[in-house]
Amino acid sequence: AAKAAGRGLLRFFDPAMQVAVAERVQLESDMRSGIEAGQFELYYQPKVQQGRIIGAEALVRWNHPERGLVSPLQFVPLAEESGLILPLGEWVMKSACEQLARWSTHPVLGHLSVSVNVSALQFRQPEFAQQVLATLATTGAPTRLLKFELTESMLIGDIEATITKMGQLRGYGVRFSLDDFGTGYSSLSYLKRLPLDEIKIDQSFVRHVLTDPNEAAIARTIIALGASLDLEVIAEGVETEEQRVFLERNGCDMWQGYLLSKPVSLAAFEALVHARTPAPGAEP
Ligand code: C2E
Ligand code: MG
Ligand code: MG
Ligand code: MG
Q1: Closest CA to 201 of 225, 185, 229, 174
Q2: Where is the EAL domain (predicted)?
Q3: What is the model's pLDDT at position 8?
């Protein structure tokens, strides 16, 4: 990027910036070896509908040998810029599908769906759909339980190609959600044309829903929009019972957020599902 910006800029490189650049280079090389060394892990955040855990969003974590658990906010953007999101995204996809396959025969966990975040670069690869189908086939994951979360940045560029690719995968049963809805480049005419199953209300519209009438109005509008386009609507970032009640009263009964659970390790997620599932024959 510095090269593209022109040589003149180099004069303004100060020592602090050089540290930042060195740090990025280091992080990138750590990431490359970390993928091979198995340092990445999927955490799961439950998705709830009418009190029942219906699935999870898979969120990647990096167990860095020196830095500890690193948040995706710190490495996903970098991974997107460097292209490392491609091998990382492939790993995420494979891991999520393997998990779906393992759950699929389990009496308590068999109904769970998994939502996977897909970055624009990954989705735009010509071989993306083929790769997904191959992963589904080799893992044996039930196709209908896999959902992809796309962001509005996918709408920039070749919209026709996006629609075709989504349609192809949907033909095989994979479902699609539009993540962080309302925060990006949203055109309602595109929204109508995209073969979506779900939109996800961004947490920035949930946070102040009880105190800010404008945010409440936006949340209600998104819910109504989803209903009129025959899309499922899920809210993210639900932290309080009052927020949950507001959403439910306004027609959004699907949510995820700290109110039930942060994203947690696989073992903790499975324990949570078991704890909330009444034993067979137990009083409701
Ligand atoms: P996202 O897909 O919008 O995920 C939601 C983020 O909100 C997650 O952050 C989650 O931990 C956080 N969150 C969930 N509930 C609450 C809540 O009640 N309150 C608050 N304050 N936050 C909540 P996380 O795990 O740090 O992930 C950040 C972003 O990194 C994700 O945003 C997603 O864009 C990206 N990301 C994560 N995993 C992957 C991945 O496997 N692939 C790609 N391409 N991106 C990923
Ligand atoms: Mg997401
Ligand atoms: Mg989101
Ligand atoms: Mg978000």
Answers
A1: 225
A2: 24-277
A3: 47
